[in-house]
Amino acid sequence: MFSQFRYWKPYISPFDPCKPIRVKSYSTPPQLFMGFQPPGLPQFQTPHQALMHGTLWPALFSPYPDPKKGVKPND
């Protein structure tokens, strides 16, 4: 399984007056890694689950993380 989140460490200038953000992140949607939809892809069990996740297929679900609660990468 791959991680949908990517991290990088930007350049931090010694003259920047603001507090630096040492590690920045962004998310990549799962459909970027799935060329074609394979046949028989599992679906959510109920329409309510699918509506709550915004997609019929769990493999295409990508949550929006809370930046303040975000996952920290290994340094």
Q: Ends: how far apart?
A: 21 Å
Widest sheet, order of strands: 1-2
State mean pLDDT (0 to 100 scale). 82
Basic shape: elongated
Instruction: Specify the helix fraction band.
Output: under 10%
Give the helix/strand class.
Answer: little secondary structure
Number of strands: 2
**Number of individual domains:** 1
- Major β-sheet profile: 2 strands, antiparallel
Strand content: 5-15%
> What is the N-to-C succession of helices and strands?
EEH
The rounded Rg comes to 17 Å
Give the helix tally: 1
Low-confidence stretches: none
Task: Give a written overview of the molecule.
- The chain is largely without helices or strands and 75 residues long.
- The protein has one domain (5-60).
- Helices cover 9% and strands 11% of the residues.
- The protein is built from one helix and two strands; from the N terminus they run ββα.
- Strands 1-2 form a two-stranded antiparallel ribbon.
- The mean pLDDT is 82.
Condensed summary:
By secondary structure, the protein is low in regular secondary structure.
Keywords, separated by commas or semicolons:
75 residues; little secondary structure; two-stranded antiparallel ribbon; 1 helix; Spore coat associated protein CotJA
Topology:
Elements: E1 5-8, E2 24-27, H1 47-53
Antiparallel strand pairs: 1-2
